[in-house]
Fold:
Amino acid sequence: MSEKDDHHRHRDEHGSELSEMQLRERALETVLTEKGYIDPSALDAIIEAYETKVGPHIGARVVAKAWTDPAFKRALLDDASNAVLGLGIVNRVGDHLIAVENSPKQHNMIVCTLCSCYPWEVLGLPPVWYKSAPYRSRAVNDPRGVLADFGVTLPADTNIRVWDSTAETRFIVLPMRPAGAEGWGEEKLASLVTRDSMIGTGFPKEPSEAA
Amino acid sequence: MDGVHDMGGMHGFGKVEPEANEPVFHSDWERRLHALYRAMSFTGVWTIDQARFARERLPPDVYLASSYYKKWELGLEKQLAEFGLAGPDELAAGRALRPGKPLKRKLTAAEVPNTVTRGSFARPAKAPARFTPGDRVRTKNIHPATHTRLPRYARGRVGVIEALRGCHVFPDSVAIGQGEDPQWLYTVRFEGRELWGANADASLQVSIEAFEPYLEPA
Structure:
């Protein structure tokens, strides 16, 4: 069968063409359901969790708390898994979550050169660029070049530390609190914390940019 | 294995292209496939390292040309065939041609909140840790044809033990079905110039998470 015929075979009732991947996923899901390995309602629940419950808003709350509560910040840097669990905003946190603190002397950046390890319990699923070859290849030898791709420039006298997530430890960056947000409460501060600032490819928003 | 998945330091992949307001998934099949993959992982037939090794063993041209979730799909299909759970004939037919194998467990919707967490990989140690923070170590120059978490760019390099992270399941062993063989895990920090030579950014340090068998005293 030619590739063209193959395409023609797979048109649904609306006449739209299904992509190869849609067909493969459907076939896989049907076979695994028929064999009794999976329950489709569990898939729906997983999708709901990742689209609506888990995401960088969790990490933002953690960072904002650390900015306002020195005891929490110490606990976070000491054992992030425990500290995040203690906040009560998530039911569970994986073991060995590690928070690394940015300072004027050191900027931290997280990568997984071997696959896609990412602290999803606090940041949700990783963006496509985090899992892409350009980021995975260059983060460890040209992090300033990578930052330039994000429009970010570090001061020349700031050292840069890249953490390659090669095991079941996971990292989250604790960015520096922006100036000009003195007296802000946790919730308002959390609105300044971007996902990229917790990976190390960006900075928090300036208070003037807050929604 | 020295595959194309081991990308640290490679040249030629171009710029990083962040997408503004990126959605969690870009299409419905990615959404379903991601969930399917997690539900199959929950059955406990294979470990996370076996799943990673399956993706690493995709042909290099396929690995590089496939989107992230397509790699997951292809890796999952490979795992299903290798563990005798579903054959390529069934996936081609789009229906089960043989009854399923009995599995230890099956994910229900009620259990999902408990699975949105990484598993625990810490295990009791068989012996005291060989290194302590501050020790200078050299990573071994090893090139196993099987799964390893020691990236190529950090082999045969001198670094410093920065932290002891506990004793964990050893991916190199569990990925090839040889048991968990728990090992001590360390954060090992290298100077950028040790990894990339004299012209490297002098302000750069890179760390890896290294299992004890990867290390020797320096």
